[in-house]
Amino acid sequence: MCFQVIISIIGLLLFGKLLEPLWGTKELSKFVFIVNFSTSMCVFVTAIAVYYVTQQESYLYTPLSGFYGVLSGLLVGIKQLMPEMELNLFVLKIKGKWIPSLIALISVVVSFFMKDLVSYLPVILFGIYMSWIYLRYFQKRLETGLKGDPSEEFSFSSFFPAILRPVLDPIASIFHRLLCGRSDRADRGQTLETSSLPGSDSTEANRRRERGQRALEQRLAEKLAAVKSTESTSLDASDKV
């Protein structure tokens, strides 16, 4: 248990350090709460459903760690904001956009060989999915004033190899229309009232993404400048002493 707590703290500090300058402390805290709560609820409902199907009470008493869902959700945030950033994993260099998919794949594979880790699999998978749902459709983007991230680079099929996307895109579009079609049309109507040309939706989405990326870079630069200013002020004060 102590080892798991240490991993959770280290992961939160590392991933939070990357995302907090871009999201802000308030949004990061909101993200952690929403993902942790929604992941826990999904795992709870899944455990109840599996119990009724199998009639095995062990599913009701399996210890679960909800914070691993938050950690995997923070990786989805890195995929969204820093997709081309490369992280060194031992001898491999992995781009940020593939890290959530890699973690999900490793978790599934490991669960077949280490039965003690099976209980963490639904937490990790639901953490990735619920964080994507929130970032894709509900997070309010300060740089655009709109909700969600409609870019193709952050679609559901972007978590999978390109060979599977022709199969996944039609399925994902069905759930998109069922769950968020109405709100998506409302937001699109506000921003694209005068645009009716073919392909204008994707063009506008790319423009929004570019504007958002520039705003995020500017915000990060302002944060770094503030930190440097504070450090120089502290050094001047120490020199005077």
From TrEMBL:
InterPro entries: Rhomboid-like_sf, TMEM115/Pdh1/Rbl19. Residues 191-203 have a biased composition (Polar residues). The chain crosses the membrane at residues 6-24, 31-53, 59-78, 98-114, 120-138. It is a multi-pass membrane protein. It is found in: Membrane. This is Rhomboid-like protein 19. The keyword Lyase does not apply. Residues 204-213 have a biased composition (Basic and acidic residues). Keywords: Membrane, Transmembrane, Transmembrane helix. One of its GO terms (cellular component) is membrane. It comes from Triticum turgidum subsp. durum. It comes from the Eukaryota. GO terms for biological process: retrograde vesicle-mediated transport, Golgi to endoplasmic reticulum. Residues 189-213 are annotated as: Disordered. It holds the Pfam family DUF1751.
